[in-house]
Amino acid sequence: MSDPVLILDDISHSYHRGLPTQVDVLRGASLEMGPGELIALVAPSGAGKSTLLHVAGLLDRQDSGSVSIKGQDTWNLSDDKRTGIRRDTVGFVYQFHHLLPEFSAVENVVLPQLANAVPERDAIDYARQLLDTVGLGHRYDHRPAELSGGEQQRVAFCRALANRPAILLADEPTGNLDPTTSDQVFDALLTLVRETGLSALIATHNAELAARMDRTVKLEEGVLVSV
């Protein structure tokens, strides 16, 4: 069996909303994700899905427990090293696309590659390849305002995969779309995930979408349980 690409081991995380009140969001959450695995993360709003994804993607530091990415424990790493792992290994997709409005679809996918020192010609070629995969080959030069909501989100998926991450973390990526568009966008996401071979942890309220993934985990009272 292949080694996990992501291990969350006994993760706890709390917020302080004015002393002495403390809100315990994660209370010993654990998860292992294998290469190429697609996992649905389900929980009610406010249960801590976003917090879990931020900890897994090294955007937040947990209070206790460990996050290991591709075999490396990140607990004692400096902020610079954590940033490097996040940049090179993890892609993020959110409910809102957050595309740069002044740039075209292809430019939005090229920019992260240029920031990672990819030659411009190679960056453009790969951006077009990703956009072709999600059916946007005819939209290379369109800016976000000229795209539909579903098209904007598909561009956001491509941008998240621009630097060839090993892990994709998605927080309600279809939550802002109507059901028909949601299905189309999720189909595009599945195609990208399967064709690139990356692992994905996707938070969703949509039971039908969750059922199409390899397995589902639920966040209950700060702990992850299999569904």
Write the layout of secondary structure elements.
Blueprint: E1 6-16, E2 22-33, E3 38-42, H1 49-56, E4 64-69, E5 72-73, H2 79-89, E6 90-93, H3 105-115, H4 120-133, H5 149-160, E7 167-171, H6 179-196, E8 199-203, H7 207-211, E9 215-220, E10 223-226
Helix pairs in contact: 3-4, 3-5, 5-6
What would you say this structure looks like, in words?
Pfam families: ABC_tran (PF00005). It contains seven helices and ten strands. The two termini are 22 Å apart. Helix 3 (105-115) packs across helix 4, helix 3 (105-115) packs parallel to helix 5 and helix 5 (149-160) runs parallel beside helix 6 (179-196). The mean pLDDT is 89. Helix content is 35%, strand content 26%. It has a single domain (35-58, 88-226), classed as Rossmann fold, CATH 3.40.50. The radius of gyration is 18 Å and the shape is globular. The strands form two sheets. Strands 6-7-8-3-9-10 form a six-stranded mixed β-sheet. A four-stranded antiparallel β-sheet has the order 2-1-4-5, with helices on one face. The protein is of the alpha/beta class and 227 residues long.
